[in-house]
Amino acid sequence: MVASEAAPYAKSGGLADVLGALPTALAERGAKVAVLLPRYQSIPRAQLRRVYDDFPVVLGQDVYRGEIYLHEHRGVRFYFLDIPAFYNRRGLYFEDGKDYPDNFLRFAALNVAGCEAIRRLFRADILHCHDWQAGLIPYYLSKRYGVDPTFASVKTVFTIHNLAYQGIFGRDVLPRIGFGESAFTSGDLEFYGNVSYLKAGIAFADVITTVSPTYAREIQTPDAGWGVDGLLRSRAQDLHGILNGADYTIWDPATDPHIAAPYDARKLDGKAACREDLLRTVGLDPEALKTAAVAGIVARLSSQKGFDLVAEVAGELMNENLALVVLGAGEHRYEAVFHHLAERYPGRVAFRNGYDDALAHKIEAGADLFLMPSQYEPCGLNQIYSLRYGTVPVVRAVGGLEDTVTGETGFKFSGYSGQELLAAVREAVNAFENKKAWKKRMLAGMKQDFSWSASAEHMLALYQTLAS
Ligand code: ADP
Ligand code: GLC
To answer: Average pLDDT of 160-183?
Structure first.
């Protein structure tokens, strides 16, 4: 597999959770799996073993010489491509809100290295590429490596975790990533006058997957297709929606080291201690909020996540017996929304602006409700974690949210409107008052099984069909 993030090494969102768990689930079922990642600054070399010097990455006229490091983790080999000029930076993709201008080179290098890895590091039947950052691989295989017998039987899988991020660059990047003008046609890399790495993955991979069945349908429509729906429809036979799983070795209140007290469906007592601990941690008073429904939010603050709706009806939401604990970082306008709410409702709204893994776990455990009003959501993992933590999700019924939350385990609304969000939250807050029914709802969620086993079996079957 080739990707730009994987837990526990480098994470900005759910992609990392998937790359941290799916490979192990496959390995447990007999596959031999390796993952190639960039060696970012945040991954200290001291923890890794150097296994290859002078690893050549040829891009156009330039040869970048990297080193490869290795770390084995839960049955999987994680290889790290170390080219300090590309990856030894503070961010994964951007700094101070600005994308790195050489992202086209940084990820093209990762893709070439992914192909070279098959020659030099790890013989594979399948090259599984994740998101636009690995989208060029099927294209390199078809155009550059196709003649080499090493690659004759290598098949590619391209997984779309988020269609909105496409890796779009100007036509002038072509020579720098090793292609001539002939690559700039609609049957190749050209996409509305630019070059698209995402399109390369979709058009040239043997098989395409995405992370929930509903999202697989949605992205074939103009409304949610981000300009690629036509191409996706033309490949509908090769497009599979396979729901992500949750890694319950990391996200389970019975064993979670970050939370105040363990609990599970048989013994729920610990959750009250987690609630109290969460509220104290973020500076809210558990006594004052005894009867309030505490809603949690943990998210990248991007327009995808639907917080425009929260902003739209914030006043009415806060008329309810509700408290809000928010952890997130991203676009400044959403940070401003939550800063403002915390100022306006001190004692009832707490906002932590940043990335904090331990606090994310505390929110999953300590909140009563979990809010995900997403505009679109390819899969979404937090609502799946919330179910296991007995933290009832209130979600918009799109993508993976639709596929994982039911009327029995959570609250759903469908239109992208503040009023619909408000109605769903009101329903949840009212339901929270009936403790007996609430407990039943919590337990229904906690008993759901979204472990990786079903998805990993599905993926293996797909690999097997391809390899044969
Ligand atoms: P997405 O991949 O679109 O961000 P997911 O729900 O699939 O959404 O996954 C988000 C993952 O990132 C979860 O593991 C969540 O806990 C984590 N996460 C998001 N924002 C933060 C944050 N500010 N601090 C800690 N963890 C975060
Ligand atoms: C993306 C999506 C999210 C999904 C994650 C893992 O970041 O936004 O919905 O859960 O990838 O596939």
So the answer is: 98
Which numbered ligand comes closest to the C-alpha of 328? 1
Looking at the fold, whether 239 and 288 belong to one and the same domain comes out as: no
Look at strands 155-160 and 207-210 and give their pairing: parallel
Residue to mutate, 162, 300, 386, ligand 2, most ligand atoms under 8 Å from C-beta: 162
Contact 170, 194 (CB under 8 A): yes
Residue numbers of the domain that contains 402? 269-449
Query: Where residue 97 falls among pLDDT bands split at 50, 70, 90?
Result: confident
Closest ligand 1 atom, residue 364 Cα: 16
Backbone angles phi, psi at 388, to 5 degrees: -65, -30
For 21-69, what is each residue's pLDDT tens digit? 999 999 999 999 999 999 999 999 999 999 999 999 999 999 999 999 9
Q: Flag whether 326 is in a domain.
A: yes
- Please indicate, yes or no, whether the overall pTM of this predicted structure exceeds 0.90: yes
**144 and 285 inside one domain:** no
Q: By alpha-carbon position, which residue is closest to atom 11 of ligand 2?
A: 161
Model confidence at 468: pLDDT above 90: no
Q: How far apart are CA 10 and CA 39, in angstroms?
A: 9
